[in-house]
Design a protein that fits this description.
By secondary structure, this protein is mostly beta strands. It is built from one helix and 43 strands. The strands form eleven sheets. A six-stranded mixed sheet has the order 29-28-36-35-34-33, with no helix packed on it. Strands 1, 2, 41, 42 and 43 form a five-stranded antiparallel sheet that branches. Strands 3-4-5-6 form a four-stranded antiparallel sheet, with no helix packed on it. The chain is globular. The termini are close together. The relative contact order is 0.11.
């Protein structure tokens, strides 16, 4: 793998949807580079320090958020530009519609959403949307679904993106809905409850109830993460008790539960542990300039203890009793599907430096365990290959494939803290970095 030099930034860089361009912002300056040559194609100066950049789906427009303004830049017409000023209500985030001709501005405190039409300069409003996590476009781009909360009751509103008119509105029996997610078919969507309720509901877009998944336990912190497989056949639910439930879309039943064994026995599971080699050198300067080598070693000891360390419950004394406050975000906090839905990578916050990889196509078998020196900051699959990439905030990159795992050390001239990883849609390059600096890696 080859790497670019290190670049400074104040927000996370992002690839365009086509995968050929990359947008970076440093202060109030925004740069658009060609990914292949890294040549600067466009440079703009915004009103204030940029805190968010967002690409349109056709990669022809770039939106930047600075202060209480949104500026929109054209990649095809350098003269054209537009600005939206929301000084009265503030801006929380922005979203592009799938047709790339409308932009949604979510205001502070989720007061309402403004939909701006770029072509006509008109605007529409949607009130009472809960949060960005409860606003989702369908994969085919035809619908927008969001959760509205009115009088302590949650409703799902579905709009048609061609007219922005209601398709349906239905009530969901949640205490306080935390998230919404479309299935890949754009026909059904799931809604799940907040962190103290292990409850998930699935509906057709017109409001027909399909099924409810609920687990009742003495002490429950509910669902930590929810993810559809790319083929839309399996729904993975991350639980706080260190397990992942798998629901079959066809019969709507749980057909598997991924639980890491307490002791790893047998040779069928690959166990890789990251190690650092010591710095060697004849002189002090050689030792100071030397970079420790990172690599994975295969652990052959089959009596590996994989038991999780439980986070103690925090107790707070009230006026008349002792209140127990459960720990926040414990258990399985993130799952990632491979592009072909054959493998699932799982991160549990009780062991934040360990990634477990499961072969879903082969009866949910635990395939590999990656143990890193530092806590995992980001992990993602290649968009077209069975290749997992993991970053742990160090100047190195961990990769796993079915035939092995290895660590790639970043050269000194482009060494950045790998807190965030994102692949281009083409799959030939990836962004490595943080909110301070980044570099671009190219596959050979």
């Amino acid at each position: 793998m080859n790497f670019s030099k290190r670049y400074k930034n104040t927000v996370l860089p992002s690839f365009s949807k086509c995968g050929k361009l990359i947008a970076t912002a440093n202060g109030s300056k925004v740069l658009v580079r060609d990914v292949a040559s890294l040549q600067v194609l466009h440079m703009w100066v915004c009103y204030d320090c940029v805190r968010e950049v967002a690409w349109s789906h056709d990669s022809c427009y770039l939106a930047t958020v600075s202060g209480s303004s949104v500026q929109i830049w054209s990649l095809t017409d350098p003269v054209w530009r537009s600005a939206i000023n929301e000084s009265d209500s503030g801006i929380q985030t922005v979203m592009w519609s799938p047709d790339s001709r409308h932009i949604l501005v979510l205001h502070d405190f989720s007061l309402f959403i403004t939909i701006w039409a770029l072509e006509y300069g008109t605007q529409m409003y949607i009130k009472n949307a809960k949060s960005p996590q409860t606003i989702q476009f369908s994969p085919d781009g035809k619908y927008l679904a969001l959760i509205e909360r009115t009088d302590c009751t949650d409703f799902v509103n579905v709009f048609h993106t061609s007219t922005w008119k209601f398709v349906s509105q239905f009530k969901v029996p949640t205490v306080n809905a935390a998230g919404l997610l479309w299935g890949a078919s754009s026909l059904e969507l799931v809604v799940w409850d907040h962190g103290f309720e292990h409850r998930l509901h699935c509906y057709y877009l017109e409001g027909t109830h399909l099924f409810t998944h609920e687990v009742k336990k003495p002490i429950s912190m509910g669902l930590q993460c929810v993810s559809w497989s790319p083929d839309n056949q399996i729904l993975a639910l991350g639980h706080h008790l260190h397990s992942v439930y798998l629901i079959n879309r066809t019969n709507r039943k749980v057909f598997g539960e991924l639980v890491v064994p307490e002791l790893l026995n047998g040779e069928e599971v690959q166990y890789y542990r990251e190690v650092h080699t010591s710095i060697v050198g004849d002189t002090i300067m050689e030792r100071l300039n030397a970079v420790p080598e990172h690599k994975f070693e295969v652990v052959t000891d089959r009596s590996i203890d994989l038991r999780f360390e439980e986070v103690p419950v925090e107790k707070k004394k009230g006026a008349n009793s002792i209140k127990e406050k459960p720990p926040r975000r414990c258990g399985v906090t993130a799952v990632r599907w491979s592009h072909d839905s054959s493998h699932l990578a799982v991160l549990d916050s009780s062991r934040p430096n360990v990634i477990t990889i499961w072969n879903i196509a082969d009866l949910n078998v635990l395939t590999a365990v990656l143990e890193l020196n530092s806590n995992v900051k980001s992990f993602t699959w290649h968009p077209h290959l069975l290749r997992l990439v993991v970053g742990s905030g160090e100047h190195s990159l961990c990769m796993w494939e079915s035939d092995g795992s290895w660590v790639i050390q970043l050269p000194a001239e482009c060494a950045v803290n790998v807190n965030n990883i994102s692949w281009s849609s083409v799959g030939d390059s990836l962004i490595l970095g943080s909110k301070e600096s980044h570099c671009i890696g190219f596959l050979e």
